[in-house]
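I'll show a record.
***
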Amino acid sequence: MNRINGWKNHGLTVFLHASVHKILFAIKGKRRPKAHGVVFRDATGAKHKAYLKQGSKNEIIISAGALGSPQLLMLSGVGPAQHLKSHDITVVLDQPLVGQGMSDNPMNAVFIPSPLPVEVSLIQVVGITHFGSYIEAASGENFAGGASSSPAVEYMNNLDETTFRGGFILEKVMGPISTGHLELRTRNPNDNPSVTFNYFKDPQDLQRCVQGIQTIEKIIESKAFFRFRYEFLSWPILLNMTANAPLNLLPKHYNPSMPLEVFCKDTVMTIWHYHGGCQVGKVVDLDYKVLGVDALRVIDGSTFNDSPGTNPQATVMMLGRYMGVKILSERLAN
């Protein structure tokens, strides 16, 4: 208990700094694989095993998120057989849909230096458009030096540092149609998996980004916004400053003479709303039980087919609450 920094209360024991590396399955004499334990390591790297007690009501619940849950299933032998074999992982269940359907709401932003001080404010107001992009704003950040290679720098060199104080208006695509996949890079659970989200692969997603950026232009050019921008920093200059900022690791192509489609592709960022990989109806059933095995559920954002245009935290928490109540009521009824 001391080595793993355990916390225990009312029959619940929580181990901190203890990461699960593998789900253990009982196969011999079983009609189909049954999860019956986990292998985990503590902060010192020492390996431990924990097993379920006997009884049909006992089960393992994975809540490692959209990246961690499909990764853990694969490391445990549940996933695409050929991919698992390529990493010398013993196949418990050939499940080709584990790691598929990976999505992330793509985000694009426009940086706007403000002549007036603005408070530090995370996203509080969301504009929901009819075409499926969400318009949001965050302010009080300091973007000085962000556009070192931009032609717009010549406008900024002789300005006070306060010039760079402002914020950004962003748009993000709600429920992207484009999806990708997740694969293991190694058998080491501490190594991040390889994830391809295929941002803007579907042209409808790209068009929604373009419409979102056009909406941001209307906001910036509005009378209400006038006092929060420098008049000499025109819309093309703001776009160029943003496009040349180190927003991602993609090669840059955009300049003001190019269409907004190029701007969207060059400046796309994650909003960390990953979902998919263990989707309902494909990897888990309507009770979030993993299809093809017993005593194992996945309850987190990896089960989502879509993610809200706003922060999905509340949705994930309500899923956990709903399933917790449902599981308890089912146990009490039996």
Observations:
- Confidence is low (pLDDT under 50) at residues 142-153.
- The chain has seven helices and 16 strands.
- The radius of gyration is 24 Å.
